[in-house]
Amino acid sequence: MPSIEIEGRNFEIDGDGFLLTPDIWNDEVARLFAGYDGITELNEKHWAIVRIIRKSWEETGMAPMIRVICQQTGLKLREIYELFPLGPARGACRVAGLPKPDGCV
Amino acid sequence: MQGNTPKIKPGIFNNHPDSRMITNMNSCVHCGLCAESCFFYLATKDERFMPGRKADLVTSVYRRYCTWQGKVFPKLVNARELNGEFASEMTDLLFGACTMCGRCSMHCSTGVDVPYLVRLGRTMLSEMGFVPATLQSTVNAALESGNNMSIPLTEFLDTIKWMEEELMDETGDPLSRIPVNEKRKEILYTLNPREPKFYPLSISAMAKIFYFAGESWTLSSEMYDVTNYAYFSGNNKEAAIIAERLRKEMKHLDCNTLVLAECGHGTRAFRWEAPNYLKQQFPFKVISSVECIADYIRKGRINLDPDKIKVPVTIHDPCNLVRNGGVINEQRYILKQFVKQFIEMEPHGIDNFCCGGGGGQLAMSEFNERRMKAAVIKAEQIRQTGAKIVVTPCHNCIDQLTQVNIYYKLGIKLMTMAEIVAEAIIPHKTNF
Fold first, then answer.
1. Contact criterion met (CB below 8 Å) for B74 and B64
2. Bridge-partner residues for B304, per DSSP?
3. CATH number reported for the structural domain that contains residue B280 in this entry
4. Contact B64, B25 (CB under 8 A)
């Protein structure tokens, strides 16, 4: 089972670096995962995106459509891609502690 | 069990003798030329990754079950029984260290179709339930929900409406539309589900091109998914179910031409493989969106502004569209119309290196680390061009290269063909 150590904490992950036990996720985990991707500080916009993704996953078991993220945060599409350079899936969903979405992402 | 014929043989050997299979199984002369053509081998120098070695895994099973020497003296002729242990080894190498990109076949001294053999191996493994879980989950999502990201219908339609508004902003025409489920149009256009889910601007980009070309077109909400991950898993029954849905929808909407979205394997799976899965020729035309866009330029239906893109641009050739799909010059023809600094990668075209995310690799978390390491070949190819924009007409390549861009700190921007063309299109009044 692969794992990564970030700032002294050990996380079990899948081969793509997504959290294997999404239940242990909290703000601290989000900060650590974001830092690992090179996002040194999560600003308000990052948090707004992460919270919507997390909420959608807890309620429906799926990552939300990017339309819902834009609609609920008021952010432009291009801003989201800039905030998470690895994209909504490998970037934002990973920081939000979701399993990797299926498909070409 | 050595020396005794195993009772259960893989299903692919149960059919009548298949001359294509037998020829490919028996043609390798072990010259080793294929090694240097494979990016997995070049990046790691791991001999297990030599294409000939991977092909031999599959032919060793063939020898064990289908040749008398393999049945009687398996060790002498390196014939191996397909048990659980060997299946695990095959899974690691045929799923986890090959993208079926076909570059090795181009360099093979006897022309062995290595990816064909690798896919046969994957078919054997799929019969045994050895498809990596993450890949199978993408196939299952498509089978169960109609698209490989399980996007609910209402969410899809809401996104299309949203992109219709984006299109109106782009064209300045409040009557611009993205038609859905309209019958008897010239074109039925498909999508990769990652477009509506996460990257919808490529949808409005293509819609903008259709708008200025004055095209009669539609999307389908019933079956819009261009992908067919069962092509990668090796399960032909599942591949046929997915392909049949698109054929059926094309018939239902009664359009003349099916335009496949920018997706290498999706284009191959429907255009070149589906007639085999479904045992029929299609009564409609099937083309890729790259050919569609090139045709608009050639006929003067769209015009592009040569001052719009000022930075150096290169193109990444998706293996299944180019080397294995025959679309080689159209993407170059398009870019050379308006890109001032167009630089080719070396090698390029049919000899191009895979991005490293093909063959279902991108969907398989199991092999992420190896996939990123092997991508060093592609990363250096891109770096050498000095390009700031890499255009690639394949959403899967885009996602792999997005990751490669960050992992290897390339500082490039990735764009689909529709996106770069839409950016340079010169607006003009249309009658549509």
1. yes
2. B425
3. 3.40.50
4. no
Q: How many Å lie between the alpha carbon of A72 and the closest alpha carbon of chain B?
A: 14
Domain presence at residue B188: yes
Residue of A nearest to B191 (CA): A104
What pLDDT digit, counting tens, does each position of A7-49 carry?
889 999 998 889 999 899 999 999 999 999 899 999 999 999 9
- Please report which residue ranges of B128-234 form alpha helices under DSSP H: 133-145, 153-171, 194-197, 201-213, 230-233
Q: Return the HEC string of B263-310.
A: CHHHHHHHHHHHHHHHCCCCCCEEEEHHHHHHHHHHCCCCCECCCCCC
**Nearest in space to B119 (alpha carbons), one of B284, B272, B296:** B272
- Are B392 and B412 a contacting pair, CB within 8 Å? no
pLDDT digits (tens, 9 = 90+) for A50-87: 999 999 999 999 999 999 999 999 999 999 999 999 99
Q: Is the CB of A88 inside 8 Å of chain B's CB atoms?
A: yes
- Complete edge-to-edge strand list for the sheet that includes strand B285-288: B217-218, B187-189, B257-260, B285-288
> Residue B67 sits in which domain range?
11-130
CA angle B378, B43, B56 (to 5 degrees): 110
- Is there a contact between A83 and A101 (Cβ–Cβ < 8 Å)? no
User: Residues B171, A40: contact at Cβ < 8 Å?
Assistant: no
- Beta-strand pair B217-218/A9-12: unpaired
Task: Quote the minimal CA–CA distance from A16 to chain B in Å.
Answer: 5
- For the stretch B56-73, pLDDT in tens is 999 999 999 999 999 999
Cβ atoms of residues B151 and B196 within 8 Å? yes
Q: Are B268 and B324 in contact (CB under 8 A)?
A: yes
Query: C-alpha angle with apex A30: A77 to A88, nearest 5 degrees?
Result: 25
Record: fold of A3-95: Arc Repressor Mutant, subunit A (1.10.10)
Which amino acid is located at B283 in the chain?
P
Cβ atoms B271, B325 nearer than 8 A: yes
Same domain for B85 and B121, yes or no, is yes
State both tokens at B389: 């924009």
A contacts of B148 (beta carbons < 8 Å) = 102-104
